[in-house]
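Treating backbone geometry as a discrete language has practical consequences that deserve illustration. The amino acid sequence and the backbone structure tokens for this protein are reproduced below.
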Amino acid sequence: MSELNGNAPTVSVVVGDIANEQADAIVNAANPELQGGGGVDGAIHRAAGAQLLEATLALGGCAIGDAVATDAYALQARYVIHAVGPRWKDGRSGEPELLAACHRRAVEVADALAVRSISFPAISCGAYRYPPTRAAPVALAAAWQAAVASSHVRTIRFVLLFEGLQKIYADAARTLDLDGAGKETS
């Protein structure tokens, strides 16, 4: 799948707290209203401060499968890219296409901002109940393919909350044979 060369993006899969990432951009697993919430979304909003909620509310929402950016405020990243993934229904209701789309759009938004490094959580795998074993290959492939097509994005990290989830994503990355994928650092 990968055409490895000096400009190919690298992928790593780690255990960590995405709100503490030092990437150029971190991706927020946002809801369509961009109003903050629980899980990753809540953690990012708490860490960024009240200005993040003001900025997201001013955007007026985001469609499922799309992504928009704001400044990162008190976070260590420069930008937060708010990507809206699908709720899991049955796997036959467009979920894989929407999950791939929100990852692609996050990388496209990052590229437009001249971002070189981007970190993702496991979008839709929490409250939206997307099975991680089904989400991981879709998310990894879409993000990597978008980065290959980008002018700027060269480093992709999937920052996952616990080891079991990290293992699922690392295994999927190895199966997809992504350059640098599956590094099990924390």
Notes: Confidence is low (pLDDT under 50) at residues 1-5, 181-186.
